[in-house]
């Protein structure tokens, strides 16, 4: 068995394709404690996510966390689960399909698009192998995280590198690090807020709630916090909001450490206590709705707000498969694919037959 893997059934006249990997976090296979245990064991063992000395963390993870958290998280997932499955997976599939359709109609050359999840399935290794089988000799990776974080974007890179280091023929590679200040992305967020206001009236305050990370990651050089602030500031500017009409907070705290602040739940509670009537909340770091937006914000935080004496918390949906969002992501992919033949940057749309004739002869392959 060769040490490095290769595409099955190589044919000398295969047409090389641009491969696009749409990557996101991933989700459990079912809203049950056993499925959550499998998912959380993979997720929380990632050193990019939990930066604690390995031996110590392994003892805590297997001795405490994986004994208690799966059942609790399964109950939360059950509240948002749909007939088609987990919202994150259902929406990610629709996004991938929408991006693929747009790329097929806009690119000169052939393209293959696959969804790969960092944890759970469809996995990143599986998606990469499918792209290789489709002839993707150039690979563009879009992690669906607008703001770069080591915990998400770099972790996607790790999964990519882990798979590719076992390949004989590594594809040409481009990796989109972030798009937190892309004008088209800011315009999509602003449009979604305007539409929400047109449908429901303007709330008394707009909260931008981002997923948190330990504060330590920021102090150790992670750009995530700054990029979240910038996204919110640009959207607020685009909507011409006065400073007291909006605020940034961080949600989904995990463990006992200090995380990025101010915390969403504490802020929502304080705003409720202050007697605020309507609170609009947008989660501008999530490209797709998921447990953290639907259960935590639309569910849990809406209750916190009301119980504290506030009026109504109105959650503004993630950009999901809105057409302006998919158009924007397609433009982003195309701008990063500049200069590649399939993106119109060269003459070599098909493999040179003379060149591959030699290769096929050398391998004894059928011509
Ligand atoms: C333990 C530390 C965690 C860090 C750091 C973290 C960072 C982080 N996560 C997202 C996006 C998502 N996280 C989601 C779920 C989720 N996150 C953590 C923990 C950390 N995340 C856990 C344990 C879970 C699972 C649910 C639970 O048990 O609470 C999700 C939702 C997935 C879904 O299936 O719907 C997303 C999306 C970002 C963007 C981020 C850092 C920037
Ligand atoms: Fe998370
Ligand atoms: Fe949560």
TrEMBL record:
Molecular function in Gene Ontology: ferrochelatase activity; metal ion binding
Catalyses which reaction(s): heme b + 2 H(+) = protoporphyrin IX + Fe(2+); Fe-coproporphyrin III + 2 H(+) = coproporphyrin III + Fe(2+)
The UniProt record lists the keyword Hydrolase: no
Location in or out of the cell: Cytoplasm
GO cellular component: cytoplasm
Protein's UniProt keywords contain Electron transport: no
Recorded coiled-coil stretches: none
Cross-referenced Pfam families: Ferrochelatase
Amino acids binding Fe(2+): 211, 292
Family assignment from sequence similarity: Belongs to the ferrochelatase family.
The protein's role, per its UniProt record: Catalyzes the ferrous insertion into protoporphyrin IX.
Protein name per the record: Ferrochelatase
Taxonomic lineage: Bacteria, Pseudomonadati, Pseudomonadota, Gammaproteobacteria, Chromatiales
Gene giving rise to this polypeptide: hemH
């Amino acid at each position: 068995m060769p040490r490095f893997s290769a595409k099955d059934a190589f044919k000398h006249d295969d047409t090389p394709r641009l491969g696009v990997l749409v990557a996101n976090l991933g989700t459990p296979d079912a809203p049950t404690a056993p499925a959550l245990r499998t998912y959380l064991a993979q997720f929380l063992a990632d050193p990019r996510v939990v930066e604690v000395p390995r031996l110590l963390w392994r003892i805590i993870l297997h001795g405490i966390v994986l004994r208690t958290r799966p059942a609790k998280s399964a109950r939360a997932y059950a509240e948002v689960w749909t007939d088609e499955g987990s919202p994150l997976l259902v929406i990610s599939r629709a996004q991938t399909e929408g991006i693929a359709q747009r790329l097929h109609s806009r690119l000169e050359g052939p393209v293959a698009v696959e969804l790969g999840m960092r944890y759970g399935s469809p996995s990143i290794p599986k998606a990469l192998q499918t792209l290789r089988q489709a002839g993707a000799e150039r690979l563009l990776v879009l992690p669906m995280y607008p703001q770069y974080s080591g915990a998400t974007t770099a972790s996607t890179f790790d999964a990519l590198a882990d798979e590719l280091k076992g390949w004989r023929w590594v594809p040409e590679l481009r990796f989109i690090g972030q798009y937190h200040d892309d004008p088209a992305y800011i315009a999509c967020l602003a449009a979604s807020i305007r539409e929400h206001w047109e449908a429901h009236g303007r709330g008394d305050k707009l909260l931008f709630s981002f997923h948190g990370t330990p504060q330590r990651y920021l102090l150790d050089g992670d750009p995530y916090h700054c990029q979240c602030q910038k996204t919110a500031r640009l959207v607020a500017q685009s909507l011409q909001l006065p400073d007291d009409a909006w605020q940034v907070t961080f949600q989904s705290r995990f463990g006992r450490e200090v995380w990025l602040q101010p915390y969403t739940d504490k802020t929502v509670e304080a705003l409720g206590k202050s007697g605020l009537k309507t609170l609009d909340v947008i989660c501008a770091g999530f490209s797709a709705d998921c447990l953290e937006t639907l259960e935590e914000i639309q569910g849990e935080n809406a209750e916190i707000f009301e119980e504290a004496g506030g009026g109504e918390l109105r959650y503004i949906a993630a950009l999901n498969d809105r057409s302006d969002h998919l158009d924007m992501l397609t433009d982003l992919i195309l701008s990063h694919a500049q200069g590649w033949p399939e993106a119109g940057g060269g003459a070599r749309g098909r493999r040179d037959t003379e060149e591959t004739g030699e290769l096929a002869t050398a391998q004894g392959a059928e011509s």
